[in-house]
Amino acid sequence: MTRRPVTDRLPAFPWDRLAPYKKIAADHPGGIVDLSVGTPVDPVPPGLRAALADAADSPGYPATWGTPALRASITGWLERRHGVRVTGEGVLPTVGSKELVAWLPTLLGLGPGDTVVHPELAYPTYDIGARLAGATPVAADGLTSLGPAPVRLVWVNSPSNPTGRVLGVAHLRKVVAWARERGAVVASDECYLDLGWEGEAPVSILHPDVSDGSHEGLLAVHSLSKRSNLAGYRAAFVAGDTALVQELLAVRKHAGMIVPAPVQAAMGAALDDEEHAAGQKERYRARRARLRAALTGAGWRIEHSQAGLYLWASHPDHDAWEAVEHLAGRGILVAPGEFYGPAGAGAVRVAFTATDERVDAAVARLGG
Ligand SMILES: Cc1ncc(COP(=O)(O)O)c(C=O)c1O
């Protein structure tokens, strides 16, 4: 019997379709302004580099659960910044959040016949994680429209990638109540929780206003990639239901899914310091404001985008791929909305993770 490769279960990598437009944008005499991916471009704050270097002499195996100091930094940050109280048993560092998103259904024991629900417009890895486990991914914003298949896991992502939409307390409470009635786990991807710009402030699924003080069945996924420019370090954590977190810990110990000790030290330093995060947020705020004004001035419509690192933009004269081509002709690369689901076909996602110099170039090319 020949085995089917795992890639047979996974979709084609959509970014290859953007390559011709990347080439067009790169040919611009002023160089490309790449706003297609949300990767940090500013330096790693010196204090975090120092914490990494100070822990460089780490010959022994690190603890999968994280050092007690790191766990204290995580619980302290959650309470201070987001009004969420968890004990050290309810937190677990992960190797960036993408690996947790991709493996969570497998780690929770989901498989064929189980349904994983994720937002209609979504970071693609929720779907991938379901497929890796052999479970069935379903894209649905309204839970009431779901059929009778047993839902084991529901992903929410507020603030959203790609739209920057924020789900309010009332919405999140409904998701939690729905999932609790059915025994489903709610996993809330909160990697942009600190990056609110306007309207209702983003709130964690673990906040007592949402959870009613019980974390049963709830997991919140956090990342330091954007807050602290640590995407290259792979630094994230999951927090919430103690029983679920301890189950994840037990499986991850067996599987060797461990955050390196120097990265654990850098993570702790990052969580203990708000100053660098506030400075980085202000950089993004300024870039967002300039790009937003330039896009609207050039006739683009911005929807949602109250939080996170993206502007969700559409233009009355172009469908999404035409819009990608139009902007590529001006040396600006953006991502077509359909990369995040069919509902995104009319829009493009514009990341504001570019240097001030590149943002200035984009603003000038959009007409001032
Ligand atoms: C919604 C969302 N979740 C998770 C991630 C993964 O981030 P990381 O693996 O760097 O923590 C990203 C990255 O852009 C994202 O947009």
From TrEMBL:
Protein name: Aminotransferase
PROSITE patterns, per database record: AA_TRANSFER_CLASS_1
This protein's record includes keyword tRNA processing: no
Organism: Nocardiopsis flavescens
InterPro entries: Aminotransferase_I/II_large, LL-DAP_aminotransferase, NHTrfase_class1_PyrdxlP-BS, OxyQ, PyrdxlP-dep_Trfase, PyrdxlP-dep_Trfase_major, PyrdxlP-dep_Trfase_small
Domain of life: Bacteria
Keyword annotations from UniProtKB, A to Z: Aminotransferase, Transferase
EC number: 2.6.1.-
Pfam families given in the database record: Aminotran_1_2
The protein's required cofactors: pyridoxal 5'-phosphate
Domain Aminotransferase class I/classII large: 32-366
Protein family (similarity comment): Belongs to the class-I pyridoxal-phosphate-dependent aminotransferase family.
One function term, GO molecular function aspect: transaminase activity
